[in-house]
Design a protein that fits this description.
Layout: E1 2-7, E2 11-17, H1 32-36, E3 43-48, E4 54-65, E5 68-79, E6 85-92, E7 113-115, E8 120-122, E9 127-128, E10 155-157, E11 163-165, H2 166-180, H3 191-196, E12 204-206, E13 214-216, H4 222-231, H5 240-256, H6 258-268, E14 274-275, E15 285-291, E16 301-303, H7 317-321, E17 329-334, E18 346-351, E19 354-357, H8 368-381, E20 397-405, H9 407-410
Antiparallel strand pairs: 1-2, 2-3, 3-4, 4-5, 5-6, 7-8, 8-9, 10-11, 12-13, 13-14, 15-16, 15-20, 17-18, 17-20, 18-19
């Protein structure tokens, strides 16, 4: 039996694949058919709150009770603020490995133990079992009882190093948009790197060859470098991919504060802080919805973790995005803008049906439909789309990629 994660905008649950490896053939792999076998009870789905705490888990089975069906409840838990489960408010029909903050429970070390990546947490006594690895640089975190910035009701602890407040995260992205919208679009492949290598730039320099990136100069704090871009946006040529990267990093900065943000970036940097078109330092993606790599399925999409050949013929990303988390990024493909800079526009979700995008430098929060309509109007204004096709053209603004960021995935 092999267990895999089920992902949407975050982890949805787990699936126990009815697959047994062949001890005499280590080349045997999980096949497409293993995913498609419908054996009820092998898929478990999480019901979690705004902090990612797994409150209940249900399977894909339905239990008949008289004339109605009831959910098959695998487990149910309620938690004190720092993660200890509340007695008489918990139930388990079988073991489920994930719980408080969505982290994995490590029963090998004892009841109440969770692995946060950088440190181990004991939820029963509300403390980590070791000091913060960067205590010598940030002495105000000398206590192992410091969890989620001492704000466990509104923030989560990402990996034992820093907290993230989602309200301030959104606020930082929207504030960043009001200034970053003045950033010019780069001309050619060299626009972005040229500015980074300019002798008068005190914060950034050209990044490693072939990465189309800029990196912080020696001794520069990541927070100062990001704030310089936000406050001097008109000097930084950014394409739409780089644009949403800076917005997200500014959201992190606004949520964590300068000291925590710098600690977070420095703890995971392998050298300098890099700002790239995709996957900048501190922002590592999982493409949960992307084009299939199979030639005859090139118009279809696949889920993260799917095997080759398991593309989705009937999936509606607009419906999925209704429940996607803040910070989810989407990538459009627009055939009537294929010869323009807008052919692969990027956007980032900042609320319920609220998105930010570079587009034309508008200080505006778009709905998903409004964003598509704006791209249609761009095609009409450029003469690549006939005005009579305005309504039908909305279907030609296709979502071809959905990307999520997760501390679990990042590790």
């Amino acid at each position: 039996m092999q267990e895999i994660h089920l992902y949407g905008s975050s982890r949805l649950g787990t699936y126990k694949i009815p697959y047994e490896p062949d001890p005499n053939d280590n080349t045997k792999q999980i096949q497409k058919e293993d995913f498609h076998k419908l054996i009820l009870g092998r898929r478990n789905y999480e019901l979690s709150n705004h902090l990612g705490n797994v409150l209940a888990v249900i399977s894909d089975k339905k239990i008949l009770n008289g004339n109605t069906f009831e959910a098959d409840i695998v487990s149910a838990n309620d938690y004190y603020p720092f993660g200890m489960t509340i007695a008489l408010r918990m139930f388990q029909s079988e073991e489920y490995r994930f719980g408080f903050n969505g982290k994995e429970n490590d029963k090998d070390f004892g009841e109440g133990i969770q692995d946060y990546g950088m440190r181990i947490s004991d939820r029963r006594i509300a403390r980590f079992l070791s000091m913060d690895p960067l205590t010598s640089f940030y002495p105000w975190y000398t206590t192992p009882y410091q969890f989620a910035g001492n704000k466990p009701i509104q923030a989560i602890d990402l990996d034992g190093l820093e907290e993230l407040d989602y309200n301030k995260f959104v606020e930082g992205m929207i504030k960043g948009q009001s200034k970053l919208r003045h950033a010019p679009f780069p001309h050619g492949e060299t626009g972005y790197n040229t500015l980074g290598g300019h002798k008068d730039n005190p914060f950034w320099e050209v990044g490693p060859f072939g990465t189309n990136s800029i990196q912080t100069k020696d001794g520069v704090k990541p927070s100062d470098a990001i704030k310089h871009i936000i406050d001097n946006a008109e000097k930084y040529p950014l394409d739409c991919g780089q644009y949403v990267q800076v917005l997200k990093l500014n959201g992190y900065l606004n949520s964590m504060g300068e000291q925590e943000f710098n600690k977070y970036i420095n703890s995971i940097s392998e050298g300098q802080f890099l700002l790239k078109p995709h996957g900048s330092t501190g922002i590592n993606y999982v493409e949960v919805y992307q084009p299939s790599q199979i030639p005859h399925e090139k118009e279809l999409r696949v889920w993260y973790g799917s095997t080759p050949g398991s593309a989705l013929a009937n999936f509606y990303p607009e419906e999925f995005l209704k429940t996607a988390k803040v910070g989810t990024e989407i990538n459009f493909s627009i055939d009537f803008l294929s010869e323009t800079v807008f052919h692969n526009e990027n956007a980032i979700k900042v609320g319920k049906n609220k998105y930010l995008a570079q587009i034309d430098g508008a200080d505006k929060v778009y709905t998903l439909k409004g964003l598509k309509q704006r791209l249609v109007e761009e095609g009409i204004s450029r003469g690549t789309l006939d005005p009579s096709e305005r309504k039908k053209a909305l279907d030609r603004v296709k979502i071809v990629q959905i990307k999520v960021t997760s501390s679990e995935i990042k590790k």
